[in-house]
Write a structure and sequence with these properties.
The chain is α+β, with helices and mostly antiparallel strands. 42% of the residues lie in helices and 20% in strands. It has a three-stranded mixed β-sheet. It is globular.
Length: 91
């Protein structure tokens, strides 16, 4: 699963935290199903995190600690999400 999470200034604080908690809860189900989870955290930039990697690794701590603030560019995030889905291990 590939998830896009807005981390712009309008999402700062409780809204961003709630979205991250939702991905954390979802990850428990995906671990049971042995499915990977990649999160694309974005504002005007995009940072990719393999929360449940195809090799079993996790970047959850880095993901939870990172936030951008600033503006929002959905195009860049959507394009990167589409590129991820075209990778063989994410189809």
């Amino acid at each position: 699963m590939v998830a896009l999470l807005d981390s712009s200034g309008s999402m700062s604080g409780e809204p961003e935290l709630a979205a991250k908690v939702l991905l954390l809860a979802l990850s428990h189900k995906l671990v049971e199903e042995r499915r990977p989870l990649r999160a694309l955290l974005f504002s005007v930039q995009v940072q990719s995190y393999d929360l449940i990697g195809t090799d079993g690794s996790s970047q959850f701590l880095d993901f939870l600690c990172h936030s951008f603030g600033g503006g929002t560019d959905f195009d860049v995030a959507l394009r990167q999400g589409i590129r991820c889905l075209q990778e063989p291990e994410w189809q």
